[in-house]
Amino acid sequence: MKAIFLRVGERTAAGYPLELFEGEQDALLERIEGDNAADALETIPLNAEGTGPDLGAGAIRLSTILDLISGHEIEGASLTGAGTLLFGLLNRGAVGKRWLGALKNAKKQWYALRPEQQLTAGVQLRTYLDVRDPYLARLPWELVRDEGDMLALHQWAPLTRYSSSTPAARREDLELRVLLVIGCHPKAAVGIAWVDELRSFLTSVCRQRDAIDFEVFEAFNEARDPRAAVTLKGELRQAIATFRPHVLHFVGHGRSEGGTGALELFDFKANDVVPWTSQELKNWLEATPPAVVLLNACRTSEAAADPEAAIAALASMTGAALGANVGCVVSMQHDIEGEAAAHFAEGFYETLARRQAVDVAVINGRKRIADAFPYENRNWALPVCTVSAPPETLLPARDRISPQRLTEVQSHPDIAPLLSFVDRRRERRTIIHPTVDALNRNVAFVVSETKMGKSSLARVIARWRWLTEQRVVYVDFGIETPQRAPRDVIEILRHMRGRDEASGDILRPNIHRAFGAFHDAVNAILDDKPLGAIPASGIDKGLLLDRNKVTSARAWDVVFDGFLSGLKSLAKERPMTLVLDHLTKLGAGVVPDDFKEHIVKRLIQPIHRGDVAGVTMVVAATANEIDQCGLTALRTSSVGVSLGNFAFEHWELLAREFVVREGMESIIAEETIRKYTPLLNEKPWKPRWFLRLKEDYEEFVGTRE
Q: What pTM was computed for the model?
């Protein structure tokens, strides 16, 4: 991809040196780090006083541009005029000629594409802007415009600020992980609409469930013991280290602290704000730097009283993040309205979910703002994107999940409803991405009492395994049995295998014919003959078996050897996950006596030991079911999670996520959520409260209609 690199040096007696480098992006960024000569060189002359650049006769002052971007209305000044003036500073002589020529070619290439091609097309030309003069660096270069072309709003030729820091290597994960930190007081009323921004964030990421994994850290609302020694900042630091986000997004206030910048965290225990300083930010991120840090934090009275001081304070936070090897920092030049921030989040995360470049995501966020506000409203120009590497190289690629599989899983009747399944994110990660090496990973357990969502979590895990190209066999003993629950071991195995006439789908593929050896073993027992004495047909006759006929350990060995050989043959094609759910439905609520002796000993334990290569298992059950089935010892040594009630402090956050996933109208839903808050009486609550919330909402909407 072609790129232009513009560098504005610090002021000298002659003016500001302006250098242009041009070439293929990767080679260009290597070239500008050395002492290589520029492809074009000009000087931005000083004004008569020698205090700044010469803007020409009758032009507005640079301080006026800063006033405009800070929200002041200046007679005779406009954002359009400011953008044209800033463009003129860069459009000089040989530099301007080469830059305009490259922009013209990029525009021509872009508009030669069909509209549907433009949706997925990459950047045609990227302009990197490295302004090293401290005063000029504070200017809102995002306003730059060449007549009608506003580069901050054009995907085909973005203008992106550049820092020479070194980004961390890209982490190749299937999911994009986003940590949203809400630092403000829950009832913040001045200049911040964090609930709207949270809702927009949830709307964006919930639509992209298969692409984005997220956590929300509410500084004011962490469900922690007030007597605990761990501080709020300690918890946040641990959350960053544990979750290892690709994107760290802060919503709240910023301020100066000890001559440098700081973010404010409202501490619920102390009932006061504590500063998250730029040095702390750098220290916390250095171990596992995010690819992107989004700071929506220039929201203080200080910003209104002293815009330049506020910019400098936030710049120190940007510098701290870049100094921690973060590849991209997106910050707000001034106080952005809550509605505008919400629009920005929508466009930003929808673009990231498609794995497009970070600066393109920023552009699409700006576009959402520009669509909702008049152009002369400054909100669209407030997001600033600073990178230290090609933006498309910062976030994990998405090519390991095929679009076809995504389409199939999102339309599946048993899986699509899982989009309403909220939270349990940490438990899901424990199973999907286990980190405790001492625990066995071949068999995982999802344990809870009834009506806690363990079956839904098991299906979420199955869904993820299928998306990662595994074969998934979801065996639900409580739903799928057509006539009655299997009452003996052979019937249980048959039920796991499935019926030959089954059409097969994502969760229940037709694998019947892989079990020929198992069928032959069962047929030999049915015919009361030794294996090998009858022709090998590989076809299950389907007759019920008198379990008293299987009297020898050898006969059971042959049956299970046949079943395991079927699993092994399937796993040779691709890895396989077997999910077992509702175990007490195995025998009309009573587990068959020989389940422990045969299913556990001859099937589950071999999988647990790793004897069945390529096959893993997930068991969803109550603790009582685990005990009845003789799985307690295996559970102790295996990866597993226990689901309990939700903490009262998380009610409003999770309820907001639920209503977003259900597509409920925001104002009515918010009123309904707050109606239920006192009813919970500060006690833990079960998932069924979501259903009560939905029923109440639907009743209200029906009454209104």
A: 0.86
